[in-house]
Structure formats: C-alpha cells, structure tokens
Amino acid sequence: MADDGMVLNFQLGAEPLKRQVKFTGGRWRDRKRAEKSARGGGQRPTDDVEIPERAPKRQRVDDDAGSSRPFKSRSFGARPGGARPGEEQKQGGGGHAGRGDRQVISSLFSHNPAQKTVFEEEQEEWKAPEATNAPLSDVASFGTLSLASRLVDELSKMDLQRPTAIQSKVIPHLLEDSGDAFVQAQTGSGKTFAYLLPILHRVLQLSKQGDGKQIHRDSGVFAIIVAPTRELARQTHTVLETLIRPFPWLVSTAITGGESKKAEKARIRKGVNFLVATPGRLADHIDNTKALTLSTVRWLILDEGDRLMDLGFEDDLKTAINALKRVQVEKETPNGASLEALPERRVTVLCSATMKMNVQKLGEMSLADATFLAAEKDDEQIDNHGMHKAPAQLHQSHIIVPAKLRLVTLISYLRSVFSRRGRTMKAIIFMACADSVDFHYELLKIPQKTNKDDTSKTKPAEVKPLTKPKQLEDSDDEEAEEAEKIQDPAKPDLPESVKRDQELLSKTVAKASYVTTPASPQVILHRMHGSLTQSTRTATIKSFSACKEPSVLITTDVSSRGLDIPSVDLVIEYDPAFSFADHIHRVGRTARAGRPGDAVIFLQPGTEEGYIDLLKTSGAITNQPFETILEKGNLAKINYPVQTAAAPPGVATDHKPPDKLQLHLEQRILNDPKQLDLARNGFKSHIRAYATHTKEERQFFDITELHLGHTAKSFGLREPPSGIGAGLDKKAKRNHKGGKDTKGGNNSKGGASKGDFDENTGMDEKASHDLFKKKSKMLMSAGASEFNIG
Asked: Is 30 domain-assigned?
C-alpha cells in the first residue's frame, strides 16, 4: 500500500487511562455531583461506588391528592449533601409516614426578608398621657345633667359616677331638643349610655302622670335601636335591661337573626317598649308581623352607621325608615295615656365613628336638619381621613416578624404576657378568617383525650371550675348566675338552658397549652367567629366576659365592633385589619372609659412596613423586636401537651427553643390528619383573605410579595398546599342549593357571612341569591369581605 504521508501520533502517559464510570440509581442531584467530582480530578471513583438509594415516595394520606404540591423554594425539606450556607439541618424522628427516620427542617432564622425600617435601639419607657375617653373630672355626677334620680342611682350601682365628654353633649340635646342628631365619638367613650339615658328619662316622665293611666308593656314601642351585628344588639339589650330593672312596667327585647322568629313574634304580641334589632330581622318583622305597630315610636337610633352601610344593609334600613315615615305619630297610647312628654316628632340619631361617603348617604336618607354632636376635644382626635384616633391612653406597638417565625413569635409573646401574675387577665387575638381561628384554637388548646377502647370517641377537655366572681356573691341577677354556672360544670341541678350552654361551650372553650407559665398555670382559651351558631356565639361571649382566670379570645372581626367586655387588657392583631377603620375598632376593645390598655400588631418585613406610617396617624406607636420576644417567651420551660420526637421528655437537644417548638408543631400536625386538614384550610383561607384589603391599603399588603412557603411555615406546614384560588365559588353554590342556613345566618367557615338578612325571609331561591350577591359586592367594595365577617 502506498504511503500517503499521514502520520498518527498516539502518546500515552505513564499513568493508566481513566475509566468512564456510569453512575446509576439514587437521586439525580447525587449522580450529577458524583460525575462532576470525577471530571474535576477529585477523589477517583471506583467500581464499588455506592449511590444512596432514592427515598421512597411519600404515600398519599386522606385527601392528599390535589391538596399538596411541591414548592420551588429550596428552604423546605431535606437537602442532600448538606444544608445551604448558614442553614442548619435539624434531625429527629416521628416524621410523616414514608419519609424514613430522618426529619430535616429549614432554620427559622435564615433566608428571611430583611427589615427595611430602622428603629431606635433604646426607646424611652412609654408613659400613658391623659385619657381622652375618660369621664370628665369637672362634672360632679350624672345628676347635673337633669336625669331622673332613680336612673342616677342605677348608674351608681354600675360604678358609673361621672359622664364622658360625648355624654355631656348628647344627653342634654336629647332631653331638651326634638331634632335629629349625628353623633361622632371614638370607641369606648360611652355612646350607648349617651342615647339610652335621655330616652329612658323622658319615658319615665310618662309614669308620673296623675290621670291614673299608667304606661305598661302594651303601651307601644317608644324607641327602636338598630345595630349592625347580633353581638352588639345583644350587648345593647343587656345594658338596657340593666337600666330598666327598677322599672318592671317597662319591657325591652332584642330581635336578631339566628333566633326563633316565632318566639320574637310572641314577645312583640305581648308588648314591648324598647326594640333592639339587627336591620334584616327588623325589616322582616315590619313586613310580616302585624302586631308590630310603629305609631308610638319616637326615637330611631342607628348605631355604628358606617358598619351598617359596609355590611350592605341599605335596603333593609330603607324599609324601616320609609315605614316609619308613612305612619302618623300618635298623641296617646292605646289605653288613652298621654304621650305629651315625648318628642312631638320622630327623632333619628345616627352614631358613627367616621364621615365616609356611605355614612353621609345614610344621613341624607334618615336625618332632617340634624345637629352634629362631638366631644370638645375631638378636633384633636380626628385624623385626616375623618376617622377618630385611638384613645390616647392606649399603648400601641408593632412587631415586624418574618412569616416563618409568626407562629412561634405569637406563642412566645403570649407566654411573656402571662409570665407576670395578674398583669393581663383577658387578651383578644384578631385573625383574618374563621378557618385560621379554628386552626389556632385547636393547636393551642390541650388536645382531647381519646378513649383507648374506642378511638372514634373523644372526651372533651375538662375545664376546672373557676372562682366565683365577687360581684355575683350577693347578686340576684339570674343571667349573671347562669354565666357563673356555665363556668362550673360540676355544679348539680343545673337548668336545661345552662346544660345546653355547657354543651355549646365544649366546642369553643378549653384550657390552653403552650402559653401557660408558672405565674399563670391555667389559661382559658375561647374561639369566636361568624360561622358558629348564634347560641354558641352568645354563650362564648358570656363565658369570656365572666371568666376570672387569665383568658384568650381568638376571633375574627365579628367581635371588633361595639363589644364592651370587661377587663380586656390586650388586643393582638395577628392579621392586620382589612381597613384602617376596622383597625381602630379592633384596638378599641381595650382602653375603654379611661382605663389603660395595650394593642400590638404583627407585620412582615417589606411592603407591610409602610403600614406603620398609617398607624402613626391614630397615635404614637412603638417597636417591639421579635428577637426580644422570643428570648423572653422561652425563659421558662414549655410544657408540650403532645409528645413528639422533636420534644421527647427529659432529652436535651441542640435545637434553639424556637426551632424545637416549630419542629414539634410540624410533627404534631403531620401526625394528626384532623389538625393537618385544619392547617391546610387555614392557610388557603388566609391567602384569599390577604387579597381583600381595601384598594387604598393594598399597596402595603401586596399578595405578590407574599412568600407562600414561609407563610405555610406559620401554619405548621412543610410546604404550601395547592388549591389556593379554588373553593369560594363551590361554597357559594353549595350554600345556595342548601336553602335555609343552619349556621345562624352564616355560610361555611371560609364563605361569606350574610348576617341575618336571609333567614326566614320567605324569598325564593333566585331572589335570595341575588340579594346575597349584591351584599357580597358591597362587602368587597368596603374592604369588609367574607373573611373578616365569617
């Protein structure tokens, strides 16, 4: 063969050739790491290289299909080959089935968004200024306002000696004048007494007539008081009942949704003088109850006018207002008693804390030549939005805490609060939605004990009898005694009503775990939201008010308006309010009538920090670093109610206390299908609720900035479940098909609360659906969505 001149030069070194090893099995990431190590000249792999076997795929449990999805955030779950720089690997047993013996969680203190706002490290100790809603010091007593002496004596028994600024303005006007009034005052300033006392005074003057014709329950309705929520209506009725106790010939009643309309008709037929109602039920009785006559009505009180309009009660209010305008005013009662002591015309009083456009619309619809009444100092207490500021003696603070640390920070904060005996007796925690309330209530309470012989039956957690309230020792108040009996399950011979309340309270009242301390070894936990039946809500509020042990109420905005619960020392806004007006009413549950109080709001780093500037318009606000709260809250040992591998008894671990608590909660939730379902539902509803802030405040609460994976950690979840946007339409359709509401006028936990306007209305399904749709739009436009009602 001829030589073509091509020379092939193969030069081999002294070392043997590297063999190309094909890696099989194990994880893809492990195989790539091994191949890269082989190419990079690291330790040369040999034929006997073993790649770890892939962990078995997690088995689906319950309704896991479609309800959980992998999340792209790399801060969750096990990380092969070691943790991310600055991230610790936590190991422990007791994990989910199919995940092996190892449990790895991401550190709570790494890869969190940075806080943008810089606060002064050393802040001066807050000193409470002069109270802005306290009784006036320059007024001797209520007697100086020309009120009946028996009313003044009854107020003294209630430990009310001097009027507040708004009472000193409203009471003389309603005593002497017959014109309409628009009353604007901050929360806790006593608006209820401001309009009740002059009404009762003028009605009592009718009983002094010398013609022998006395006023009785069948003399007609003299005043109608409209409240936006059932709880506020019940509270107003309770105050009214207390005031008229010395006058047995006067009768009041409350008509609200969720109660028997037949029983309400029977009471109206017997005769009532004062009617406290919610708008929907009032409109229903005006249309369908013939025994309800309006010719003797002299006062129409519209309490919390802004809330009445926000909840979409405009049509119901129009029905009541127009019905009163059509009826001619009578000069005497059916039995011939003269009504000259009462105003010659009907007087409408509109009470509202704001001057929003919908309130102005309500005023145009109901008022005629109204007088504006406000406290003298209120000019300084009204912000640029026409909204009253919080009481000056209220100490407000905020906690900027990353989403991953929210749950452990809340528990630590409650522990620090109850670490000093007697300082805080009652605390209210506001959350965005009913599902979130249910999750946190079930998580923080002592778990139910399961019968070993029958695992399907559970025994409710027993609540020890509480100390008998001192004010009830010599009291003949039947309602107060019943409230005491509710707290004492062991008391024999209980009435049927009390036994029924006992059964209701077993679902909403329990002893708390995690948050107890040596100073407060027993803390009573309550839950409250609009999806509970009306009887359950009433019993829960009564129990929380009468409780003499340290207690916590976890609730939605259904408890934010008008409720006057004694001894509330602290308000925690775990989820920020849907509107700034709701925030003012939330924090107004404490620091009432001149008493001091504390309010704290949880915010996340980032856009939510801008909300602080808006909070400053309602008063001074201080910062509480979450690191300090975690340190104080973990000084004492936590008694875990459930044993998990993360918190074995008597075994020391290298975990930080917050990490240990978080890992324990996650393992407990994973091992409890019911708790896992509550956590997923709470997370989904929380995300949906986050998108319902008012348009003006959505810049602070931007859902696109919300880290779903970190938020899932705040619900004790390792990864965010799927189906965030689904469910609302299905719930709405299911509730419409169901016809009559069986939950006291409210839909499911995550659905919209319709108040009382759809119960026993007699409307067909389409009309009811259209009304519900219209009022839902009103709620969304006002920022008061289904989440803060239900």
From this structure: no
In this structure, the answer to whether residues 437 and 521 fall within a common structural domain is: yes
How big, in percent rounded to 5, are the helix, strand and coil portions of the chain?
35, 10, 50
Residues 442 and 576 in one domain: yes
> Chain centroid to CA 593: how far?
22
What's this model's pTM, rounded to 2 decimal places? 0.70
Residue 396 has φ and ψ, to the nearest 5°, of -100, 140
**Do 206 and 317 reside in the same domain of the chain?**
yes
DSSP per position, 466-507: PPPPGGGTT---HHHHHHHHHT-TT-SS--HHHHHHHHHHTT
Task: Give the residue carrying structure tokens 């001057």.
Answer: 355
Residues near 770 by Cβ (< 8 Å), separated by ≥ 6? none
Strands (E) across 612-748 are located at 621-623
Contact 727, 750 (CB under 8 A): yes
pLDDT in tens, 499-535: 777 888 888 999 999 999 999 999 999 999 989 988 8
Radius of gyration of the chain (CA): 31
**Within a 13 Å sphere around the CA of 651, how many CA atoms are in the beta-carbon half?**
11
How many angstroms separate the CA atoms of 531 and 730, rounded? 17
Domain that holds residue 683: 394-450+480-713
Structural domain count, the chain: 3
Residue 681 located in a structural domain: yes
Element housing 510 (H / E): strand 509-511
Tokens, residue 236: 């107003």
Q: Are residues 684 and 735 in the same domain?
A: no
- Shared domain for 694 and 649, answered yes or no, is yes
CATH number of the domain bearing residue 651: 3.40.50.300
CA distances (Å), origin 431, targets 32, 36, 68, 256, 719: 46, 50, 24, 25, 21
Domain co-membership, 597 together with 739: no
Domain boundary residue among 662, 678, 713? 713
pLDDT for 341-395, tens place per residue? 899 899 999 998 777 788 889 999 999 989 998 876 545 555 555 566 778 888 9
Query: Do 759 and 709 reside in the same domain of the chain?
Result: no
